[in-house]
Design brief:
The protein has about 350 residues and is an alpha/beta fold. It has two domains: about 190 residues, Glycogen Phosphorylase B (Rossmann fold); about 150 residues, Glycogen Phosphorylase B (Rossmann fold), CATH 3.40.50.2000. The protein is built from 13 helices and 15 strands. The strands form three sheets. It has a seven-stranded parallel sheet, with helices on both faces. The longest helix is centred in the C-terminal third of the chain and has 22 residues. The protein is globular. The chain starts with a strand and ends with a helix.
Length: about 350
């Protein structure tokens, strides 16, 4: 079993809602948690304010079976730890103070734009031989990252395809799934206004259409129109209530307004067997969703007509079934095993070259 540390997670655990602390790694960070669960890895996450003796859910139990090893250290404990790590993954930026020599150092990034300071640190770390490569999303995100880094980190060191998955045992179609119930579950700044306008147009055609709206805990002061087609759930933490919304709603119109590396919402909706609609040229999802088969990638102006037709002829559920099959083929288990295979390959290559 390889030992992997995810370092530089700067969210202060003691500022979280106490009822959410035990689930933060699983529901918010996701990657280290599911890599521990499925990747046959001994995973350590470092935090700024939580000691190793204050662990949360160190092991994930599913179907009565305990899977994976997942523990915590403070950053200072990690720096002082002299035991061996097979890999260290720097969380979203390069942390020189958390670099360990004689260890595979990687960088995980899920952002769509980067500051000059961020880029300089990453380029310098790679050119000095400290940073092996950058864990990124495929298609648009990898290409954009290559350009952002001034083409100074080779394409082969931009390690695509083993980042965000989805838990297909949690997100799955409900018996009550209905195409007349649509869902917006994201930051409102990512295009909620377009989804609201969409449901109002659909409501004029068919009074059964509804848009369920919720947002994450960092969002404040969201004001929604008072209308029978709009159902506000407010701030909703990751958990059974949110899962039920995904599993019940038949359509997720993601009216994104800027290119995104990925989005949890569209992956979760695909796993739940929903019809996902995404605008073209809006990042990796626009390129990974196969238009007409695993979702719809068309201009937002065309969505009302497309949705009405697909609801009437039942093709929304056919596409939703194909979307779920795709989500299963790229779920957390697949991502975790892909990552484990990758680091094993790199470690063996480094041994050969040394």
């Amino acid at each position: 079993m390889r030992r992997v540390a995810f370092v530089g997670i700067r969210r202060k655990y003691k500022e979280l809602d106490p009822s959410y602390i035990s689930k933060f790694d699983q529901y918010h960070l996701e990657i280290p948690f599911y890599y521990a669960m499925y990747g046959n890895l001994d995973v350590v996450t470092t935090t700024v304010d939580l000691g190793a003796n204050e662990t949360h859910d160190d092991f994930f139990v599913r179907d009565g079976e305990t899977r994976g090893s997942h523990t915590h250290m403070t950053e200072q404990e990690f720096v002082n730890d002299k035991t061996h790590f097979d890999a260290v993954v720097h969380w979203r930026e390069w942390f020189p103070e958390l670099y360990k020599s004689d260890t595979l150092n990687l960088l995980h990034t899920c952002d769509f734009g980067y500051s000059e300071e961020w880029k300089k640190r990453v380029i310098d770390a790679h050119s000095s031989g400290k940073l092996y490569g950058v864990d990124c999303y495929p298609t648009w995100h990898k290409g954009n990252l290559f350009k952002e880094l001034n083409e100074l980190i080779p394409n082969e060191r931009l390690l695509e395809g083993h980042t965000l998955g989805v838990d297909t045992e949690i997100y799955k179609p409900s018996f009550a799934k209905s195409p007349y119930h649509m869902l917006w579950s994201s930051d409102p700044g990512r295009g909620l206004q377009g989804a609201l306008q969409l449901v109002l147009k659909l409501f004029q055609i068919d009074k059964r259409f509804r848009l369920h709206v919720c947002w994450p805990d960092y969002v404040k002061n969201v004001s929604l129109p008072l209308h029978p087609a709009i159902i506000s759930h407010g701030c909703m933490k990751n958990g059974p209530e949110l899962w039920n919304l995904f599993n019940m709603c038949g359509i997720l119109p993601y009216t994104s307004t800027f290119p995104e590396p990925s989005s949890r919402a569209h992956r979760q909706a695909m796993a739940a067997g929903s019809l996902v609609l995404y605008p073209p040229n809006m990042g990796s999802p626009s390129e990974l969703i196969e238009n007409g088969r695993t979702g719809i990638v068309e201009p937002i102006s065309q969505w009302p007509e497309i949705i009405i037709k697909m609801v009437q002829d039942g093709s929304w559920s056919v596409v939703g079934s194909a979307a779920r099959a795709y989500a299963i083929s790229e779920n957390w288990e697949v991502q975790a095993k892909r990552f484990s295979t990758l680091i094993e390959k790199i470690i063996q290559e480094k041994k050969t070259n040394d």
